[in-house]
Amino acid sequence: MKNPHSADTTNPFDFVLFGGTGDLSLRKLLPALYFRHCENQLADDGRIICVARKDLDTDAFRSLISSEVKQHIPEEQFMQNVWDEFVQRVFYLQIDLTTIEGYSDLGNMLAGREDHARVFYLSVAPSLFATICNKVKEAGLISAKSRVALEKPLGRDQETANEINDQLAEAFEESQIFRIDHYLGKETVQNLMALRFGNSLFEPLWRRERISDVQITIAESLGVGTRGGFYDQTGALRDMVQNHLLQLLVIIAMEPPVSVDSDAVRDEKIKVLRALKPLVGQHAVESTVRGQYKAGAYADGAVPGYLDNETVSDDSTTETFVAIRAEIQSWRWAGVPFYLRTGKHMESKLTEIIINFRKVPHSIYETADGFTAPNQLIIRLQPEESIRMRIYVKAWGDDMELQPVHLNLDFNDIFKKRQMIAYERLCIDIINGNQTLFMRRDEVDAAWAWIDPIREAWEKHKVVPKSYTAGTMGPAASNALISKEGLKWYED
Ligand code: BG6
């Protein structure tokens, strides 16, 4: 069977990048497309048309990206001759996104290429989503092969997400809408599905009878930096839990789909989101921890606290850390706690999923650690991608003493090649029209439906964030949350 994400050359395309001079475009999207160009994966006449307000022409834009984008490509992976070829695909169009005139210039550039995949990638403020969709429709630019791709945040809650989705639906069919959660483009996230559904070993173990708890951590070492204005209105629950953390949870917990077809996969994912036990009122307060970092230090120096950030309001109660105890109400998972946590300015950058298996029912051996830690599957997405299985073996020597060791799958060692960045996979899938790794409207809706009552409970019960020192793993209350049922956060 053909791999839907295989490295074949893409369909011929026009990739219209709104917000072409923005941070995401320069840091992630253009480097991603460059890497795919290096792999000969972009169709020969595929064009990247960057659209923005800045007064530039194509030549000026090409020289701008030649210096800017280069900084985001590791030196050893930058090949000047290939880059020179790549920039020939890149065009620039200065338009005012809010008036129809500019769109007719875009129309002229796209004319006669209706048989090409036509991607409208909206790397712009969400307040512009509706305007751009209306205008491309009004200008008659939406062909049968058009698709629109958008970045989160998709709304602030279920209601505002619905408004955005309604506006999108006025211009595009659902099959043309690609809602991005870049975590789904990460190699290990896809490997998680491969591990579960490409091997028969794990399936019998993947259930409440064998698994005691699951822990998912997305820790960041950076603070909010210059994004304070946006972040202060958003907070970790909306910024990370509603999307990245829930998507990881869903991939761990979903039933096997009947195929890799995008709707087959997404039909299973939505069932998990709908089966999440609602966290409402006092129950939400008791099952969650909010935190906010205060000044602290890393090996390379001190960092200021969240409230010291000039772009953040002085008395802000926005959370930069969240821990949640979630449960999935299904035959497979009933009673198994899923602990989720994420935060800014934590000890280090680390994304990790821990599956804790139950202890042996009756131990006939002595172990140095008293079998306190059960068998574990440790799936690491960042900083390096690896999967490790913790098992007990007899240590060499006279004594019959068991010792935990790890079966190690380090993907860098195994594949010995450059690891793709998430946006490479996602850009190619958008061009080729494969929606598997993108969020369907009902998924976004179900995720907000679970998140909104948590936020409402925090407001109603006036839950203010507990402070934690930057450079640590969050407030003490996060350890207290998990220790209520005799567990502790995994530490390497
Ligand atoms: C983004 C959030 O979606 O993900 C950021 O808005 C966060 O706040 C980022 O820093 C983390 O992504 P990654 O891939 O660096 O883990």
Provide a descriptive summary of the structure in words.
The chain is of the alpha/beta class. Helices cover 34% and strands 22% of the residues. It is built from 15 helices and 18 strands. The strands form 3 sheets. A 10-stranded mixed beta sheet has the order 14-17-16-15-13-7-12-11-8-18, sandwiched between helices. The protein has a 6-stranded parallel beta sheet with strand order 3-2-1-4-5-6, sandwiched between helices. Strand 15 and strand 16 form a beta hairpin. 6-O-phosphono-beta-D-glucopyranose (BG6) binds next to loops.
Helix content: 25-40%
Broad CATH class of the largest domain: Alpha Beta
**Count of runs of 4 or more consecutive helical residues:** 15
How much of the sequence is in beta strands? Answer: 15-25%
Query: CATH architecture of the largest domain, please?
Result: 2-Layer Sandwich
Cofactors and ligands present? 6-O-phosphono-beta-D-glucopyranose
The main β sheet shows up as: 10 strands, mixed
Strand sequence of the main sheet, in spatial order? 14-17-16-15-13-7-12-11-8-18
Name the average pLDDT: 93
The CATH superfamily name of the largest domain is Dihydrodipicolinate Reductase, domain 2
| Counted beta strands | 18
* C-alpha termini separation: 39 Å
Shape by Cα distribution: globular
Parts with pLDDT < 50 across at least 5 consecutive residues: 1-5
> What is the total domain count?
2
Radius of gyration: 24 Å
CATH topology-level name of the largest domain: Dihydrodipicolinate Reductase, domain 2
